[in-house]
Design a protein that fits this description.
By secondary structure, the protein is mainly alpha-helical. It has helices at 2-6, 40-59, 73-78, 110-118, 123-135, 139-143, 174-187, 209-222, 229-241, 248-255, 260-264, 275-283, 297-304; strands at residues 150-151, 156-160, 167-171. Among the domains are: 2-76, no CATH class; 110-236, hpI Integrase, Chain A. It has 13 helices and 3 strands, in the order H-H-H-H-H-H-E-E-E-H-H-H-H-H-H-H. A hairpin with a 4-residue loop joins strand 1 (150-151) and strand 2. The longest helix is centred in the first third of the chain and has 20 residues, at 40-59.
Length: 307
């Protein structure tokens, strides 16, 4: 654990010079640039994996008498079965467990989305981003769809869900379907019912996650931004959650969240979303304090003083 907290993560190396230093704040997007080391979530995940490894072998009598990874008994009691009406109990972290900061979803604003979409170079990339922003599907889910998974009449795509591995439908906008039709008309239909997202150069191959991420990175480098593919899901969820015509349960169904508390995170309003309202508030003249007419002025002055 000491090594994980001090060593540099090789996946965070950047060959391109310039840019914002690791751990700093990108002023264009408001997102933190990934640090040079391992994230607290990565360290905590490694601890859980090693703890489960020793717990499995201890169960069959092949492991040590004591699990070398510390655990918190208070946490086990707090996560035990309880009534949902009871408030969650506080508990301390186990030794070596890092403190994991709460992450708020970061959505792409409409202006930044228009700039990002304008950087797409071909119909495939436009169709891919339009499907991401309208369906809210995860990156790996959308990249695995085939031609039989596109329902042109109902306007939906069938994806293999990340958690349950079940085949589930996700909505898609008519604009995204139009871009998708233009891409298929230009590139041709996939052979042998293969994935519809294919590479454009060399031998035709299925588009991988790393290739799709590189498409977004090239556009983000031009805009000096640090958007990721998962930010497109956050943006779609934020747009749906802030639509007054849609309920939170409907948004949960579209995003396929197991708990509605996860969907409720997208209802939080950031300060950047209140700039126009704050400008109107500051321009509005200060209203004098007034009281209903049926209150006597001397009584109001006696209670609240001279206003």
């Amino acid at each position: 654990m000491g090594w994980l907290r001090t060593a540099n993560n090789p996946q965070r190396r950047r060959r391109r010079e310039g840019g914002y230093p690791p751990g700093s704040l990108n002023p264009n997007t408001g997102k933190l640039v990934l640090g040079a080391g391992y994230a607290p979530r990565t360290i905590a995940h490694n601890l859980s994996v090693v703890h489960s490894f020793y717990a499995f072998h201890r169960h069959y009598g092949r492991g040590p008498a004591l699990n070398p990874v510390p655990e918190s008994k208070a946490r086990r009691r707090a996560l035990a079965h309880r009534s949902p009406l009871e408030p969650p109990r506080q508990h301390r972290r186990a030794r070596l467990r890092p403190k994991i900061p709460a992450r708020q979803p970061r959505a792409i604003s409409d202006r930044q989305w228009d700039e990002l979409f304008a950087q797409m170079r071909c119909d495939r990339d436009r169709a891919l981003l339009a499907c991401y922003i309208s369906s809210g599907a995860r990156a790996s889910e959308l990249l695995g769809i085939r031609l039989c998974d596109v329902d042109w009449q109902k306007g939906q795509l069938w994806v293999i869900s990340k958690g349950t591995r079940a085949r589930q439908p996700v909505p898609v906008s008519p604009e995204a379907l139009a871009y998708l039709a233009a891409y298929l008309d230009q590139a041709g239909l996939p052979e042998n019912d293969g994935p519809i997202w294919r590479t454009r150069r060399g031998q035709s191959r299925p588009l991988t996650y790393w290739a799709a991420r590189r498409v977004l990175q090239r556009a983000a480098e031009v805009l000096a931004a640090n958007w990721t593919l998962h930010d497109l899901r956050h943006s779609a969820a934020t747009r749906l959650a802030r639509d007054p015509e849609m309920t939170l349960v409907e948004v949960q169904t579209i995003l396929r969240h197991a708990h509605i508390t996860t969907t409720a995170l997208y209802t939080a309003v950031g300060l950047d979303d209140l700039i126009d309202k704050l400008a109107e508030h500051y321009a509005r003249p200060v209203q004098p304090t007034s009281w209903p007419q049926h209150y006597d002025a001397t009584d109001v002055e006696a209670v609240f003083g001279d206003q």
